[in-house]
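Let us work through a complete example step by step.
Step 1: write down the sequence.
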Amino acid sequence: MSLNITRPVVIINGKPIKYNTISYKKTSINTISQLSVSTSDINLKISDLNRKEIKFFLNKGGGKDNIPFFRGYVTSVKPSTKGVNIEALDCLQFLTGEFSQQVSVNDINNFDGMTLGQFLHHYVVNYVNVDTTLIGVDLLNDTNPPKSLSGYRNKEYISAMKIIKDNPVLDSSKVWDNDSSDSTSLPWFIDVVDDGVKSNLVFKKLQSRTTDEIKQAVPFSMKDGIASFTAKELQPINTVVITNSNTGSRTTLKTHEHKSILSSTQYKSELESPDEARKEAHLIINNSRNNSKEIKISTTKGHYLEVGTFIHIKEKSEPSINGYHNIIGKELKISNNSITCNFSLDKPKPILSDYLNVGNSIYH
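Step 2: predict the structure and record it as tokens.
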């Protein structure tokens, strides 16, 4: 899976451009993909670049990139005496930020009866693809289970991505076939899939640890694909305070760890009962525990692996990274014909024997 770059290509408004460096970045499953290109061609006109479609082929001519590695629209053009710096975002920019159409969600204008997938289809057709197709909906699916927007309201004008963020869909999938449950709730997220003509919206979910997906996990090790790594321990949350935004009542959930070191967070919610609030707080603590390690690896393979992909690092001598991971962030940097590829990973997922030996956490 190592990549021998034959011909990276950048095309803006249908025309290839010469470049000095290219940088691609997607920092998490919930962020927009970014592309930065520097060129020494000072003859490029801002009017020929700004807000135009940009396509980046990582290995054009290598038999892989008939479909762009990145497709988006230029958001910034900065000329200098040395050339031009170009910034671009993928099509998710039309769902949030300065290039998106904000909507009101109240008792008169709302999306009651729609699922998240149906809402996105409605939004793209009516607010984005008005004069031309900027986002494809041919591949748009729904979450499982579907998330209804009935009853959802917001007092301000908000973006489509804000509506998605306010209505998360979590799936407590099984880790193994012996019915041991993973305490991590696997989130659904909105992603982009290119069909060769346009960028399409699609809902995806971080891969669970089922037998089939474990078999398909891409292997990595220090001898196979990992050039270097860093692992930083973060203090997990052990105290959650949830305040009802309507009544002001507070629900607090703590673990025994708070007695030695306090790591707390506070949320506002409209959950109606203390039991619902405690359940939400329990979820926050569990997810914090399972994402309390910041891991980054620099690789010599896997350049086409997508954010959300499941990998298996086989490195028993390095327990901080050994195990199963989801890729939650990705960065590529190209200069001339050299390339660096970096992945951000979630915390290693335990093997079956680890689960059999772990006792229950005690909450009060």
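Step 3: interpret the result. The chain has a mean pLDDT of 84.
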